[in-house]
């Protein structure tokens, strides 16, 4: 079995893909499903998200969450905050998500991956176990990064996932996995690593330090968002459900 | 002053760029110039390299060096081996180089960079000092990687360069630099890091382990290949001279 860590999305994934965008898309995705959402629709653009809301949807069966540059998108109901998500009840609702990097990474993964899962630090152990049980040839951990630059927080989380996976079985590992493991073992504890990342610093500057602390919790959830059969999802979206 | 490490070529470099392809293009480039070559012409494709050789160039004022998949290119005079280069005398010759990743990275750097230098472990200290003396706003260390995947050997070398730079002055650093510094400090000595990289292992398997050991020497040369004024170079090539 191969274990591969792409420090930025690359494509060409043949088997299981774990998409990682710790600050904050995949952390928030886990929180939405933890709080009862029936599913998540990840769109490539904010416009696709806005177009999904039916006219006069007073019951708000669809809620929109997302960000650009860390800030909420006009017309959306929620930002991309796991703290905000964890304080709400989404029972019976579907959350449409669009974020700067995480949703793109998920779309890249879905082009070829047989099984696409969303992973964060908060669900790291469960995500690693699920990936191991599904994989037949390769597990690829894909770091979303920030605007095509490698993000320390995602590489750190990839190292945490890789450590769990190596404890579950034998893998041949690539240079990306070697780098992620070295970062995980030498970049401090999760809150230190996430806070010192450029993205963590920016969120702190925007008054969103609580989200960074939330995202630094390790394996507090057993919920793994799993890409559902495509037939189920509107065009241009990926539907994830609790797995 | 900003210090930025791109674990893969990204583009958009405003100031000084250090291009790193330790196994083996930038290491070999230093060796060619050490052994007397007047200049290096880096081409984007092997065909551009072959077309540069004049008909009936018996004196061989132009020699061709390069590789694909680690092996010499048909019609070329040399592979991409620093050991081979270091054993020859290139006085009075210009070397046309084309390699799988390093020459592409140099072309990406040259699109916007004001000063483009080639760096390896062998010239790391000299390259860092030269970069520092030229820079006015940013030094970008650009890892060539291998076929769009991050290479441990390049990230390690970027960390060595970053350490030298941090000893030369104050920098604000990005996540790529943080990652490279952590790898440099925790991935063993140079020969361990290069040998354990996927690319190092492949070269070893091709019988090119001597090249890996050569490339793992740190700061044995004070020669820094510097991109020369473009007017001097044939179309589609970049000309580097000893700086």
From TrEMBL, chains A, B:
Keywords: Hydrolase, Magnesium. It catalyses: (2R)-O-phospho-3-sulfolactate + H2O = (2R)-3-sulfolactate + phosphate. The keyword Hydrolase applies. InterPro entries: ComB-like, ComB-like_sf. Its cofactor is Mg(2+). Its EC number is 3.1.3.71. The keyword Isomerase does not apply. Belongs to the ComB family. This is Probable 2-phosphosulfolactate phosphatase. It comes from Deinococcus hohokamensis.
